[in-house]
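F.,

This is the one I mentioned.
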């Protein structure tokens, strides 16, 4: 999305093709898995606050549901494209399969910029999105959730519209709902915490004490904020974060070499994760260009913003000191950059593993909705840690055993599971 010539779907297909070759997949299975099974494109008319009608474009792409109902978030973004949503839906299929939860992969989006929309207008977009797709989602078909610039309130509006249309309560239709309205404790923290569970395990493998490490984080939204929180609890030091500046339409990096203070930064951040530059400078942060998070002298890089961030153009800026990259975002590293990262022996924790905590907790949310009985936060987070650690261990073990890069190992596990499900069902 950051670069209009970048096609995320082509990248997702290239990543898949590499593994399809490795697994010698037959052409039928290959054709099925390298494309979404279904996709929906629709218009959402909204009466705006100034009484004009504006039509927003919405999407839902269902990549594969052989292992269970489709699952994946909905993004609101002004630069959203169908190819990005296609890629994200495919990555959801691999993500659910990597951590072995019984769900398939989907993704949705609306081309809009919530920065410029009132709450009422956002509610109408959410309800309009559901009205267009209400027959093709549901707890046993396809289950949306939050993603970039969507949150628990958006999910509740969507659920309310769905339940109004279907005339009954179906809390398992949407996850990431508010607490008390079918949401799971721990869901807000889950993606960021999950990233750090995998970093903790990678540090164990490498024999590094987290307390001796520092990290640079790209992004300051939900994933980044909770990743920073848990990583700091493990004793790590975060030297910088980057965030989008809506007024200047570019991002900036905020650096404090002796460690950023999360609460202090949260106090000067808007609800989209935009940090106030003037106030940050007053608090002693160096305000640098948006891309400077990548060349900091740290042991760990956590890209937790958008896709297409570590590319052939900037991969060589990564410092020699970097030992681990943990992909909090979906698709932040291009295949070209991946090659350099592998050659340099940097331990890559790929997106489909590193950021699987969100969807894993979404799955737990569904389980709790089905029972209508809710777990404590500790219970939800303990189960999350177990599921993520077990996913990490299988990927790491396969990577060591077969001498495969971590991304390839994760894909081998996931693609095999999905291909087997398609075969067992008699689809291919
Ligand atoms: N949007 C998150 C992701 O990319 C979570 C999806 C979900 O909970 O279904 O993994």
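My design for it:
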């Amino acid at each position: 999305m950051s670069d209009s010539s970048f096609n995320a779907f082509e990248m997702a297909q290239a990543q898949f093709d590499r593994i399809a070759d490795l697994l010698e997949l037959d052409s039928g299975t290959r054709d099925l898995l390298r494309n979404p099974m279904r996709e929906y494109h629709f218009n959402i008319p909204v009466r705006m606050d100034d009484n004009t009608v504006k039509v927003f474009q919405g999407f839902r792409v269902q990549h594969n549901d052989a292992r269970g109902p489709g699952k994946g978030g909905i993004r609101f973004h002004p630069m959203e494209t169908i190819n990005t949503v296609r890629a994200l839906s495919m990555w959801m299929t691999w993500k659910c399969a990597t951590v072995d939860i019984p769900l398939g992969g989907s993704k949705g989006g609306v081309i809009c910029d919530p920065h410029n929309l009132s709450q009422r207008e956002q509610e109408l977009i959410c309800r309009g999105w559901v009205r267009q797709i209400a027959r093709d989602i549901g707890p046993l078909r396809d289950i949306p959730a939050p993603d970039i610039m969507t949150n628990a309130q958006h999910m509740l509006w969507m659920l309310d519209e769905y339940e109004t249309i279907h005339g009954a309560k179906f809390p398992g239709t949407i996850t990431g709902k508010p607490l008390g309205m079918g949401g799971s404790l721990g869901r807000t923290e889950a993606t960021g915490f999950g990233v750090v569970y995998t970093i903790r395990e990678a540090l164990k493998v490498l024999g590094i004490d987290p307390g001796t490490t520092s990290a640079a984080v790209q992004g300051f939204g939900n994933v980044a904020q909770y990743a920073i929180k848990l990583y700091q609890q493990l004793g790590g030091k975060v030297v910088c974060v980057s965030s989008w500046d809506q007024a200047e339409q570019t991002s900036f990096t905020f650096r404090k070499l002796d460690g950023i203070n999360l609460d202090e930064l949260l106090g000067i951040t808007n609800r989209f994760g935009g940090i106030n530059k003037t106030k940050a400078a007053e608090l002693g942060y160096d305000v640098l260009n948006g891309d400077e998070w990548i060349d900091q002298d740290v042991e760990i890089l956590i890209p937790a913003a958008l896709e297409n961030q570590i590319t052939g153009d900037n991969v060589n800026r990564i410092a020699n000191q970097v030992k681990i990259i943990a992909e909090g975002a979906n698709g932040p590293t291009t295949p070209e950059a991946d090659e350099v990262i592998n050659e340099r022996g940097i331990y890559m924790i790929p997106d489909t593993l590193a950021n699987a905590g969100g969807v894993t907790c979404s799955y737990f949310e569904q389980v709790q909705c089905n029972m209508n009985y809710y777990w404590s936060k500790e219970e939800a987070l303990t189960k999350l840690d177990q599921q993520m650690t077990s996913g990490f261990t299988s990927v790491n073990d396969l990577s060591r055993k077969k001498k495969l890069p971590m991304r390839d190992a994760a894909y081998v596990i996931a693609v095999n599971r999905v291909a087997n499900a398609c075969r067992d069902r008699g689809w291919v």
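The longest strand covers residues 53-64.

Talk soon.
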